[in-house]
């Protein structure tokens, strides 16, 4: 039984591990709780969440960093919305100012 519990705990821990991805993008602003960025190919990125440590480094809620380019480290998780549709929620975990 103890072995089963340890195995189950390990499986659950692996299943919930999120991979950190990175991208370079230009900050376009903050509105209605969403941080907007655009990558070099013109693709728009929206982040609904930001880690407190990243927000302390750069106050993206103010307009001071609009137009600045960042290296963004983020995680994504899939969730269900009110209609039961899958949606991806991205969270910024670290930021580095490029220029």
> Helicity range of the residues?
10-25%
Q: Calculate Rg over CA atoms.
A: 17 Å
Assign an overall shape. globular
**CATH class annotation:** Mainly Beta
Give an overview of the whole structure.
- This protein has 99 residues and is α+β, with helices and mostly antiparallel strands.
- It has a single domain (19-97), classed as Beta Barrel (OB fold (Dihydrolipoamide Acetyltransferase, E2P)).
- The chain is built from two helices and six strands, in the order αββββαββ.
- The protein has a six-stranded mixed sheet.
- The protein is globular, with a radius of gyration of 17 Å.
- It starts with a helix and ends with a strand.
Explain briefly what this protein structure is.
20% of the residues lie in helices and 47% in strands. The chain has 99 residues and is an alpha+beta fold. The chain has one domain: NigD-like N-terminal OB domain (OB fold (Dihydrolipoamide Acetyltransferase, E2P)), CATH 2.40.50.
Please outline the helices and strands.
Blueprint: H1 2-15, E1 21-31, E2 34-39, E3 44-47, E4 49-50, H2 52-57, E5 69-80, E6 86-97
Question: What distinguishing features does this structure have?
Answer:
6 strands; globular; OB fold (Dihydrolipoamide Acetyltransferase, E2P); 99 residues; disordered N terminus; single chain; 6-stranded mixed β-sheet
